[in-house]
Amino acid sequence: QNEIAKLLGVSPKCVSSTKKRYEETGTVSDRSRSGRPRKLTLRDESYIFREIRKYPSSSYQKLYTDFNSKTQAVRIRKYTIMRFLQKKRLIVSYS
């Protein structure tokens, strides 16, 4: 394991834990994380991006209303859209 670690440029602990994970699960992929699931899917984000490109001066209220009227499965709050836009740096946060 030490030789492998040197070849890969990682610590022996990393090699050991990766080997153990493979023996236990059959894969070296990361385990799923706990926590609250995301409210917006990638498809939802794409929809919001398209709407912003079509109507650059849209308000949060308009995006919120349009999104919730077109999507029956998921309801979001306007603050979700605000946080998404701030995170993607599409708007400036004044807080």
Description:
The chain is mainly α and 95 residues long. The protein folds into 2 domains: 1-34, no CATH class; 42-87. The protein is built from 5 helices and no strands. Helix 1 (2-8) packs across helix 2 (12-25) and helix 4 (60-70) crosses helix 5 (78-87). The chain starts with a helix and ends in an 8-residue tail after the last helix. The model has no long low-confidence stretch (mean pLDDT 84). InterPro entries: Homeodomain-like_sf. This is Homeodomain-like DNA binding domain-containing transcription factor. It holds the Pfam family HTH_29. Keywords: DNA-binding, Homeobox. One of its GO terms (molecular function) is DNA binding.
Integer tally of domains: 2
End-to-end separation: 51 Å
| Number of discrete helical segments | 5
Rg over CA atoms:
21 Å
Gross morphology: elongated
Fraction of helical residues: 55-70%
Keywords: DNA-binding, Homeobox
Pfam families: HTH_29
Organism: Brachionus plicatilis
Protein name: Homeodomain-like DNA binding domain-containing transcription factor
Gist?
58% of the residues lie in helices and 0% in strands. The chain is built from five helices and no strands.
Task: Record the SSE blueprint.
Layout lengths: L1 H7 L3 H14 L16 H13 L5 H11 L7 H10 L8
Q: What attributes does this structure have?
A:
DNA-binding, 2 domains, mainly alpha, Homeodomain-like_sf, Homeodomain-like DNA binding domain-containing transcription factor, about 100 residues, homeobox, 5 helices
